[in-house]
Design brief:
globular, 510 residues, 71% helix, mainly alpha
Length: 510
């Protein structure tokens, strides 16, 4: 397989698998499931080939590998242009890793329209990969919008009682921000023509011309992009769509939503907002960091009072992603590294929490914390796995959550842009609050007397469920014990990006 075309295979294998599913008889559910799982595993293997061929020593935030370019709309100089660097590759790996595990988790929970569900999951995987590897802003926008369609149907068809409301709210929120981003993309492409002589949406060419914009223009364009990404993160106070979408989505939808889709927002901030508009990014870093810190505390406090396990985990995402945004806008290599690795950590830990909530819901058909109690003696394996995952989400040293939060807090303390240490100090209290809401939930569900007679008949995790969770826990421990494996992928990228932005603003890292 040629390295110049390998990203095409990575992108189009899920699409080809989804289209081939259409010839399968709808009644043959197991064949559909096996084929969908096979397709996602092939995609994961291709992503591993990209990883093993990737050169982590390539230096620069504008240096990409495995580039492939094909003229698409020649009159507008719009191309099908893809490539990866450490940032996009690590998120592609997260996508291709979680998708087969998610499909495997739906083996028993999804029983209606299995073919359509698997089709949408594979199309969604293609859209997510496309977002991370696009090097043309028009192509990026196409994948960004196309990804909404399968998730809309996944929530709207296989979700809970208020699924239509949740799916429409999710769609409208994201579409609103995206339209402003489209206007900004067109403005940038027209502006670039004054330097290049032609209309272009090529990201690498825009990297060269956009920093020359004045602060006023950068501000307008920065917020047009940032609003779209902040909604997706979601950054406080643009988070209100998230709890509804998570609670009403099927378990698989919640895992992908938390594990990958939310990272598109933070990815967009790093890939587009910072390098395209370096002056505006620094100018408004304090305000955005303030919203991030508010989100850390607000998400944690609201999570504490939730009665529904799934809604508790949903609000925890608001808190955890606030940490990521704080790390990004600290403008230090440590903060940026911490933000990137925390994207992965959140995808693993929160994805695992949603899976575990789904596993117990399939058995009891309730997510209300008050309906449980004392089940540690009934399902000891499930209880042990839940404890490990909860501790990883809290940030216990030795598990994945710790290293990300540690680097983010170091970056916030050292930040040459955030002059006040209170950002880091207040954000650090979010770690304490996370311990409160997760351990309190754990205590009420697993300890004390068994509240209901039917809970005594609960069955523990089966082989399939245990395989999924052990696979996730391996990486949870791996990142916690030896994070260098993952940090080295984005080390040089983080330093190059931060130094470039600070040099444009005349700031020297102390």
């Amino acid at each position: 397989m040629e390295t110049s075309t390998i990203l095409n295979y990575l992108l189009f294998v899920p699409l080809a698998g989804a289209l081939l599913l259409m010839v399968f008889p709808s009644a043959n559910k197991n064949a559909i499931r096996y084929f969908g799982l096979f397709t996602s595993l092939v995609t994961f293997i291709i992503s591993l080939l990209v990883y093993y061929s990737f050169d982590s020593g390539v230096y620069g935030f504008d240096k990409f590998q495995f580039e492939f370019k094909y003229s698409w709309i020649s009159d507008l100089s719009i191309s099908y242009y893809v490539g990866v660097d450490g940032l996009s590759l690590i998120l592609v790996l997260l996508t291709t890793f979680l998708t087969p595990l998610t499909l495997l988790s739906t083996w028993n929970s999804i029983q209606i329209k299995v073919k359509e569900f698997t089709f949408f999951m594979l199309v969604l995987e293609m859209g997510m990969i496309g977002v991370f590897i696009s090097l043309d802003l028009f192509l990026f926008y196409v994948f960004w919008e196309a990804m909404l369609i399968p998730m809309y149907f996944i929530i709207g068809i296989w979700g809970g009682e208020r699924r239509i409301y949740a799916s429409v709210k999710f769609f409208i929120y994201t579409m609103f921000g995206s339209l402003l981003m489209l206007v900004a993309i067109i403005w940038l492409a027209v502006y670039a023509s004054s330097s290049t002589g032609y209309f272009t949406t090529n990201l690498l060419e825009l990297y060269k011309v956009s920093p020359a914009l004045g602060l006023d223009i950068q501000t307008y364009l920065f917020f047009a992009f940032a609003l779209s990404f902040a909604i997706k993160v979601p950054l406080f106070p643009l988070h209100t769509w998230l709890p509804d979408a998570h609670v009403e989505a099927p378990t698989a939808g919640s895992v992908i939503l938390a594990g990958v889709l939310l990272k598109m927002g933070t990815y967009g901030l790093v890939r587009f907002c910072l390098p395209l508009f370096p002056q505006a990014s620094v100018e408004y870093a304090g305000w955005i960091s303030l919203l991030a810190v508010i989100g850390v505390i607000y998400g944690a406090l609201v999570a504490m009072v939730q009665k529904d396990m799934k809604k508790l985990v949903a609000y925890s995402s608001v808190s955890h992603l606030g940490f990521v945004v704080l790390g990004i806008f600290a403008f230090t290599p440590e903060g940026m590294q911490g933000a990137i690795i925390q994207m992965i950590n959140h995808g693993l830990s929160t994805g695992a929490l949603f899976l575990l909530v789904g596993f117990i819901y399939e058995r009891t058909h309730t997510r209300q914390i008050a309906d449980y109690g004392g089940i540690a003696a009934v399902v000891p394996v499930y209880s042990a796995v839940m404890l490990i995952v909860a501790l990883s989400s809290i940030g216990l040293p030795g598990l994945n959550g710790f290293i990300g939060e540690f680097l983010i807090l170091i970056g916030a303390f050292k930040s040459p842009v955030l002059s006040n240490w209170m950002y880091a100090i207040v954000a650090a209290s979010g770690v304490i609050f996370a311990a409160v809401y997760l351990l309190w939930m754990y205590q009420r569900i697993f300890f004390g007397p068994v509240k209901k007679l039917e809970l005594r008949g609960l069955t523990d995790m089966n082989g399939k469920e245990l395989f999924i969770m052990v696979t996730l826990i391996i990486f949870i421990v791996w990142i916690g014990v030896y994070p260098t494996t993952f940090l080295q992928m984005t080390d040089k990228y983080s330093s190059a990006l931060v130094n470039s932005i600070l040099s444009v603003n005349g700031i020297i890292i102390r």
